[in-house]
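Action item from last meeting closed. Structure (248 res):
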């Protein structure tokens, strides 16, 4: 084989590999774009379902028979109501960062008339007002709690590990709090009390932030644009030789 023929053969192999790589990039980018479109559809459906829950009248808080079937997808942010008595037990403060600045959520154990215990997030107190005497006392009192169902928050992700012995809580881990406070079996969720239940000033209820980031359309358009650019590069590579001259 002549040197020119060998050079053309090697150039053809390189160009074929290059085109195959561009085709793979095109398919990957297009696939990611389709995935973002699907994610956007899922997110819009989630937002619609949560908004419907927030507008619905409160229902009776789930009891032990319903606990195994509770999931974040199906139950988070449901408006629920519970009648009973706050237990005469210490409240638990968990770290919080809100629109009012850093502080704590005040979690209090509540015994429902139906015979089970649930933690109630009474609301927010700032860092310099964490002392029990600075907030309304409820231990031992009868009450009707209305608020949002929130799933258990075991430590994970970017949250620091809780330190029950030192009384430092970074997540609303109801199972760990119940164990530390010797509350026995508790519901696998807590209730974010609304502003009518805890009108403030301390603690201040009704501060649950319900917001969903929905940037999937932007991501989808970005991936589709990259796919088009890669497809254009494929077409150009096919039309031209590896040295930039037009293929015959």
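Sequence:
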């Amino acid at each position: 084989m002549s040197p020119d023929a060998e050079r053309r053969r090697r150039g053809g192999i390189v160009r074929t590999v290059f085109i195959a790589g561009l085709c793979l990039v095109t398919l990957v980018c297009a696939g990611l774009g389709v995935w973002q479109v699907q994610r956007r559809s899922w997110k819009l459906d989630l937002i619609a379902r949560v908004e419907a829950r927030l507008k619905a009248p409160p229902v009776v808080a789930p009891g032990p028979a319903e606990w195994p079937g509770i999931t974040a997808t199906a139950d988070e942010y449901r408006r629920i109501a519970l009648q009973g008595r706050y237990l005469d037990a210490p409240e638990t403060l968990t770290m919080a960062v809100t629109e009012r600045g850093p502080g704590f959520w005040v979690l209090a154990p509540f015994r429902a008339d139906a015979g089970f215990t649930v933690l109630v997030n009474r609301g927010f107190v700032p860092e310099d007002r964490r002392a029990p005497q600075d907030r309304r006392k409820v231990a031992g009192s009868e009450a009707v709690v209305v608020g949002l169902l929130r799933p258990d928050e075991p430590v994970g992700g970017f949250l620091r590990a809780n330190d029950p012995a030192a009384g430092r809580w970074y997540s609303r881990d109801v199972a760990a709090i119940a164990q530390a406070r010797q509350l026995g079996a508790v519901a696998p969720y807590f209730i974010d009390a609304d502003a009518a239940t805890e009108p403030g000033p301390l603690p201040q209820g009704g501060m649950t932030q319900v917001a969903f980031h929905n940037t999937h359309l932007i991501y989808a358009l970005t991936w589709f644009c990259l796919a088009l650019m890669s497809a254009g590069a494929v077409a150009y590579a096919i039309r031209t030789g590896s040295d930039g001259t037009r293929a015959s």
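Note appended to the action item: The longest helix spans residues 3-55.
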